[in-house]
Design the sequence.
């Protein structure tokens, strides 16, 4: 039987565990959305729609890095580490009390999506 905290981590990283489900691992509960706590670090993953490989080009990576830099310098979050993969981004961050995880991530995704769309429009269909 697995500990609830471990099951949550397994749920987050379920793709790493292969084809095993939570039930097969002995976890008999439905994962819940955690409450925001400004004392915690958060491991956040955001991915592209249908896992399209949009982040291969340096121009797009620069947009993401610049967006993260802006959030860090405006003190909306304290960025510890990030990695940009071809179709998703991982970040480990600490959010302050006045800037909640959901609000910061909403604004980050909204801004970067608009910038990436504008970049693809400038490049034409060569972006894909």
Sequence:
């Amino acid at each position: 039987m697995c500990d609830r905290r471990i099951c949550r981590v397994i749920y987050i990283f379920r793709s790493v565990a292969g084809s095993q489900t939570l039930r097969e691992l002995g976890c008999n509960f439905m994962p819940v959305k955690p409450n925001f706590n400004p004392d915690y670090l958060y491991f956040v993953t955001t991915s592209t729609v249908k896992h399209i490989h949009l982040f291969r080009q340096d121009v797009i990576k620069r947009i993401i890095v610049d967006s993260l830099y802006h959030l860090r310098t405006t003190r909306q979050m304290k960025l510890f580490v990030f990695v940009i993969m071809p179709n998703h981004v991982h970040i480990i961050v600490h959010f302050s009390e006045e800037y909640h995880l959901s609000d910061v991530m909403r604004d980050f995704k909204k801004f970067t999506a608009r910038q990436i769309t504008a970049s693809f429009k400038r490049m034409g269909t060569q972006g894909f």
Remarks:
- Residues 1-19 have pLDDT under 50 and may be disordered.
- The two ends are 45 Å apart (CA to CA).
- The beta strands are 41-47, 77-84, 88-95.
